[in-house]
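Re: that chain you flagged

S.,

Sorry for the slow reply, it's been a week of failed gels. I finally had a moment to sit down with the sequence you sent. For the record, here it is as I used it:
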Amino acid sequence: MTDRYARQITLPEIGRDGQDALHKARILLVGVGGLGCPAAQYLVGAGVGSLTLVDGDVVSENNLHRQILFRETEIGQPKVAAAGQSLRSLNSGCDIIEIAQPLTPANAAGPVAASDLVLDCADSFAVSYILSDICDDLGKPLISASALGTSGYVGAFCASAPSLRAVFPDLPENTETCATAGVMGPVVGILGTMQAQIAMSLILGTDPSPIGHLRTLDGATLKTGGFNFLHAQEPSAAPLKFLDVQDIRHTDLVVDLRGKAEAPAVVAPKALRRSVADFATDQRPVPAKNQRAILCCRTGLRAWRSARVLQTYWDGDISLVAMGDMPNPPEPKDPS
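Prediction finished late last night. Pasting the structure tokens below so you have them in one place:
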């Protein structure tokens, strides 16, 4: 053990046993953006043994105000590659694994299973619920954060605590995103740093544990709040789960909620093009008795809202697809 961790080892909460625990830890971090950049830096600086980065995006100029791992010379490079290079120069003793793909229901289970805990830094409805479902099934802690404008939250879900669905059984009514409403750089920096602190606390087994607690931050007033959700109940109704686009079948009733300007080609050859409002009119789609309904949009929000309306007049199987910015969807599967 070198002296680089001396200031940590001195802490009674860490000591040499705690530093050994950090060195053995395997952490999955999804989303190398405003939340993920500070979280990754502090975890690697603290000496975690392995950090897997998942992000399919590239470095862009309009994100540099809050994505502090990146430099102007790296614009256009994959985020995980640029972040990996920076983090290795910070601590060569940490194993950095790069997955330059967006997280989907098809590729999420393996990295989650291989990790001790998961940081949800993607700030995506679909990613948060995908990760929560898998972490809940596998008993892995999920540290999820979200920010918009000058406020946000961070919480520790799953494992011995209720899942994210217990605290957020429905998606928010607000459709704003960081791109449309803006976001303050230091706000996501504080929340990302809190994710790193919670991760370290869980690895070290500190008491009281942060699991089952949610903290809120109002960056405009510097006020914080929060609550304990250890006794929150999981939703009693069957959850609306996200499906990978490659798992759409020819027999499914597929509804693409994206407009032609947003997506010139529908997600599947026989997909219906509808809007959320259509589900409350005579244009509403009605699946056959044994069909599966697949509702698609870019983020998952419109699909979720449409599914809630569909559930009021049809009780069959409904799945959601968050397309992201995928330009060319794959051909649907033949059930045979």
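What I noticed first: The chain has two domains: 3-228, 241-322.

Talk soon,
D.
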